[in-house]
Specification:
The protein is of the alpha/beta class and about 425 residues long. The protein folds into 2 domains: about 140 residues, Aspartate Aminotransferase, domain 1 (Alpha-Beta Complex); about 260 residues, 3-Layer(aba) Sandwich (Aspartate Aminotransferase, domain 2). Helix 1 packs antiparallel against helix 13 and helix 5 packs parallel to helix 6. It binds pyridoxal-5'-phosphate. Pyridoxal-5'-phosphate binds next to helix 5 and helix 6.
Length: about 425
């Protein structure tokens, strides 16, 4: 089918969409709402709502503390679901636990400590990485007397292999990068960059927050050492649902994470006098897991597995390509510029558009029931949800966006940004 800016073209794409039926697996109380913020907080699947109710009413309400016999396995169980369906990892390498921030701290410390023995004390990340990543790595470096080296990255195009290569040397212990950039959606070549990082003798740690559930990730095949990712975006597990971590099998016995909690103790209920880490991936647990959040991760990953990550990627590419084509046609003359890679294979499932009045425009869009978000310094960020978004949603959203920009109906919105953007 040749691209056309007519709405009927979007309808024909929807008619051919193999994933269309999955939309009805999600709660949609407001049928007029167009939701383009799946890369911030994913929608709620019916099955997840029912499973949470079951856990609350039965497991907690009736079973009480007896339910720990099954709950205790959940971080591993949900981890295997993420590993198998979403991140290309063989069993025994992924856990669902803690937050992204905490898991990054755990894995960065573990990597740095083992490399310190080899005289390596430099951490590399890029200056446009997500704030929590930069701050945690800054803190880890400060606490351990290490150096944090920031590679300059183009905000719209993502990390450059040459810039990374220039920063690598034999003092580098760890390189920590985002697979998909939070602002632009730029997709890094994980296998290629990991190879570079390994050639310099460093560990590669990948933040998968914006790729898990929208882009196929091959942790084992790419040789990644460590990874972290969240579950409240494309995995649709809900606000504050626990994150996941990956530690490559052969590294698990070499690394020692810094938070020695009882859930990572070999004989947890032996209540022994001192810490003796559990073998394998269990060493990377800390304390009591959030059970309600963890079952939501399990259900979210199962549902994405049913749709298939390859099909979700195909649809993500089609949705964002369509969005970019409409933006070129309609929005470029109204002061917008694409702030994401133009080539579909170089971006994840979201797109950013630059405009001088991006904050007010993003708020005006929400007023018109099109929910995207704003990112500094001047981006409207639009993140379709591949499992639920229709092509007509993209058409309708872009149509509203061009009207708002053309008649400047956003000008009554205060230019001061709210606390949450
Ligand atoms: C790339 C990236 N890393 C980390 C986080 C957040 O980490 P946490 O879940 O610990 O708040 C986000 C949140 O949007 C993110 O986009």
């Amino acid at each position: 089918m040749m691209f056309s800016a007519d709405r009927s073209y979007a309808e024909s794409l929807d008619a051919a969409d193999e994933l269309a039926a999955f939309r009805d697996r999600f709660i949609r109380p407001d049928h007029e709402l167009i939701y383009l913020d799946g890369n911030s907080l994913g929608p709620l699947p019916f099955r997840t709502q029912a499973r949470i109710a079951e856990v609350v009413d039965q497991d907690w309400g009736v079973g009480l503390v007896r339910s720990w016999d099954s709950w205790i396995e959940l971080p591993r169980q949900a981890g295997e679901m993420v590993a198998e369906h979403l991140v290309g990892a063989a069993p025994g390498q992924v856990l669902v636990c803690d937050s992204v921030t905490i898991n990054l701290y755990k894995l960065a410390c573990a990597a740095l400590d083992v490399q310190a023995g080899q005289g390596r004390n430099v951490i590399i990340t890029d200056d446009d990485n997500f704030p929590t990543d930069r701050y945690v790595l800054e803190g880890v470096a400060a606490q351990r007397g290490a150096e944090l080296r920031l590679v300059h990255t183009d905000m719209d195009h993502g990390i450059s292999e040459q810039a990374l290569a220039a920063a690598l040397d034999d003092r580098v212990a760890l390189v920590s990068l985002s697979h998909v950039a939070y602002r632009s959606g730029a997709l890094a070549d994980m296998a290629r960059l990991t190879e570079r990082i390994h050639a310099a003798g460093a560990f590669a740690l990948w933040d998968l927050c914006h790729s898990v559930g929208s882009v196929p990730v091959e942790l084992d095949a790419s040789g990644a050492d460590l990874a972290i990712g969240c579950t409240y975006k494309y995995v649709n597990a809900g606000p504050g649902a626990p994150a996941f971590l990956y530690v490559r099998g052969e590294l698990q016995e070499r690394l020692r994470q810094p938070i020695w909690g009882w859930f990572s103790q070999r004989d947890q209920f032996g209540m022994g006098p001192s810490y003796d880490p559990a073998p394998g991936i269990d060493q990377f647990l800390t304390g009591t897991p959030n059970i309600i959040g963890t079952v939501a991760v399990e259900e979210g990953a199962r549902l994405l597995g049913e749709a298939g990550i390859a099909k979700l990627r195909e649809k993500g590419v089609a949705l964002t390509s369509y969005l970019v084509a409409l933006a070129d046609d309609w929005l470029a003359p109204l002061g917008f510029a694409l702030a994401s890679p133009r080539e579909a294979e170089r971006r994840g499932a979201h797109v950013s558009l630059r405009h001088d009045d991006a904050w007010q425009i993003s708020q005006a869009l929400i007023r018109e029931k099109v929910v995207g978000d704003y990112r500094t310094p001047d981006r409207v960020r639009l993140g379709p949800v591949p499992i639920t978004t229709r092509f007509i949603d993209i058409w309708d959203a872009m149509d509203k966006l061009r009207r708002i920009a053309a008649d400047r109906s956003y000008e009554d919105i205060p230019a001061d940004q709210a606390r949450v953007t």
